[in-house]
Amino acid sequence: MARSWQIVALAISLALMIATILWYAKEEQKAPAPSGAGTQPHSGALHHGADTPEHKGGDLSPIQVFANAKDGDWRAYRVTTEITDKQPITATALLRLSSVSAANVTVSGNGRIEATGEIQKQPEDVRPRQGLTIDQLTGNDIGGWTIYDVTITDEPHVVGGRTFKCKKISYASKDPMFPTKNTRTELWISDEVPAGGIVEEKEIQQLDAMRFAITQTLLGFGDATTTAWGTKPDGL
Questions:
Q1: Is residue 193 part of a domain?
Q2: Which residues of 143-165 are buried (b: 16+ CB within 10 A; e: fewer)?
Q3: Which structural domain, as residue segments, surrounds residue 180?
């Protein structure tokens, strides 16, 4: 799942993690133990394994999305999570820049799970205004996945009837908890969008028979006094 400090609503993230761990544990119980299972390295060592691709998350983001940040900038978006044989889960989130200094920005906000109306508060998070890496852009500095096979292109992207001038970042990633899971992400970012720059993000995760598809789509953005484009969700 997008390891994003931008929020896939904390409750959704936790529920999906628990469901995945339980499902995977059951599948492991069904399978015979591999030869020498007791000597397998801990999954946390994945970054250091000989078969692990070089991590590229430390590369600079192609757009420094907080370079022109102002106090009160905000961005709203919808997150849809689809899981094999399950009804899609939808959440709406609103992020704000609650503090902006010469060096950093502080991001905070709320997310609402649409099916229940439950609101989850986004913990404050500090990001640099310059020197932002792909890890920091995606929140992977917290998740610690291995990001590799990175491609960056210029690609306009249409959301809500508007065409945004974007950089598209396409990459694969490895989850240290589930080394056999395959993940591919497509991320469109634009300096036209405040509070993080994300126009749309599409991620597919495949873990054996389980498939997760997570899409984050921009709904609106603005500053402390106005809505510059789209809509600002009520109650967030």
A1: yes
A2: bbbbbeebebeeeebebeeeebe
A3: 10-26+55-65+79-88+132-219
Q: What is the pLDDT along the chain (236 residues), one digit of tens a residue?
A: 344 434 443 444 444 444 444 444 444 444 444 333 333 333 333 444 457 799 999 999 999 999 999 999 999 999 999 988 888 989 999 999 999 999 999 999 999 988 889 898 888 999 999 999 999 999 998 888 999 999 999 999 999 999 999 999 999 999 988 889 999 999 999 999 999 999 999 999 999 888 999 999 999 999 999 999 999 999 99
Q: What is the 3-state secondary structure (H, E, C) of 33-87?
A: CCCCHHHCCCHHHHHHCCCCCCCCCCCECCCCCCCCCCCCCEEEEEEEEEECCCC
Residue 226 included in any domain: no
Residue 143 lies in a domain: yes
Q: How far apart are CA 141 and CA 45, in angstroms?
A: 16
Number of structural domains the chain divides into:
1
